[in-house]
Amino acid sequence: MLPLPKKRPKSAAALLRRLNLWTPLLFSGIRITHLSDDYTHIRATLKNWRNTKNSHNTQFGGSLFALTDPIYALLLNCLFGETHYVWDKSAYIEFVKPGHGAVHLDCKLSETELAEIRRRTEQGDKYLPEFTIRVFDDRNETVAIVQRTVYIRLKKEFRPA
C-alpha cells in the first residue's frame, strides 16, 4: 500500500523523504530525486545495483517497470486524493534498448491535463487518462517507454445531487 495519508501531505519534501524510506522503493533500488512543491513534477532513479540486473548484466525489466509504478497515481493522489478515488488501472511497457547503469524518469503533469481531469470527473464520471513515461539512461537514451492508465473518479460524497 502506498504510504499516502488521507489528506494532502504537509509538504512535498516530507513526502519525498517518506517515499524514499518506503520499503518497496528502498529495497528495489528506486529513489525519488525530486518532487515539486505543487506535486506536478517528479524525477526518480533506478540505481545500478547487482540485484536490479538480469542475467545479461543490464537492468531487469521488472525493475524498470517498478520504477514507473507509483508515479502518476502518486502525483494525482496528492492533487485529488481528498476528493477523488485514484488508482493505477493498467500499464504496458515497451523495451527499447538494454539499460546499462542507472536509469531515470522525469514526469510532469500539465495544467491542461489537470483541467481535463477536473472537467471529465466533475459530474462523478470515471476518467481513465493515459500517461507515457520515458525511462532513460545517463546518456539520455531511451531504455523503455511505459504507458500507464489511471482510474480517477469523484468520491460519492462530492458528486452533484
Secondary-structure map:
Blueprint: H1 12-21, H2 23-26, E1 30-35, E2 41-46, H3 61-68, H4 71-80, E3 84-95, E4 103-108, H5 111-121, E5 130-137, E6 142-154
Antiparallel strand pairs: 1-2, 2-4, 3-6, 4-5, 5-6
Q: What does this entry look like structurally?
A:
With 161 residues, the protein is an alpha+beta fold. It has a single domain, classed as Roll (Thiol Ester Dehydrase, Chain A). The chain is built from five helices and six strands. A six-stranded antiparallel sheet has the order 1-2-4-5-6-3. It is elongated.
Number of separate strands: 6
CATH architecture: Roll
The shape, in one word, is elongated
The domain count comes to 1
How far the N terminus sits from the C terminus, by CA atoms, comes to 32 Å
Sheet with the most strands, sense and barrel status:
6 strands, antiparallel
